[in-house]
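Help needed: design a sequence for this.
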């Protein structure tokens, strides 16, 4: 088919896959020309049209009930070209510069030994909790691990709210001393 032929506005009874295949075959030259007019070389334009076909093949039903399938396909391919240009610009900025510049950028990730440090601190915290007197340890665990309020702990253990607060303060101080 030539690129000047047009598809009907709505194809009743034609499945989405057939509509996509016919539309891409019919408008291939028009779509690639639209992308080339946006500054992409012919090879890139063909790649973008291919990428568009692959994306639409996953959801061919999006072509159903479009007023102009040709306009939709051209706009979608142009948008893929814009995305490609943005990605290439971003990559050029990311990967430009010297090794010295790269090393001077602060890392947003953690140091390789970060997980080891966390594991060591958790082990120290477990030891500190184990060292607490039994009642203080129970109060601390109910508060920190089971998320009970001091009033709930007081009722559960049948001790005063003031005593719960005192146990929590001393448990926190003990754990902080051990960790730091």
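Sure. Designed sequence:
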């Amino acid at each position: 088919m030539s690129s000047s032929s047009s598809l009907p506005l709505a194809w009743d009874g034609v499945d989405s896959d057939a509509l996509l295949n016919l539309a891409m075959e019919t408008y291939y030259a028009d779509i690639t020309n639209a992308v080339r007019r946006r500054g992409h070389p012919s090879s890139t334009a063909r790649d973008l049209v291919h990428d568009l076909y692959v994306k639409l093949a996953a959801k061919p039903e999006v072509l159903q009930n479009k007023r102009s399938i040709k306009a939709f396909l051209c706009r979608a391919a142009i948008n893929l070209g814009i995305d490609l240009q943005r990605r290439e610009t971003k990559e050029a900025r990311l990967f430009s510069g010297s090794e010295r510049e790269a090393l001077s950028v602060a890392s947003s990730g953690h140091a390789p030994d970060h997980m080891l440090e966390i594991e060591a601190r958790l082990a120290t915290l477990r030891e500190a909790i184990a060292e607490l007197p039994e009642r203080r340890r129970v109060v601390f665990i109910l508060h920190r691990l089971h998320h009970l309020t001091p009033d709930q702990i007081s009722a559960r253990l049948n001790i005063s709210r003031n005593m719960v607060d005192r146990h929590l303060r001393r448990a926190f101080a003990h754990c902080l001393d051990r960790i730091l």
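The domain at 114-179 is CATH 1.10.10.10 (Arc Repressor Mutant, subunit A).
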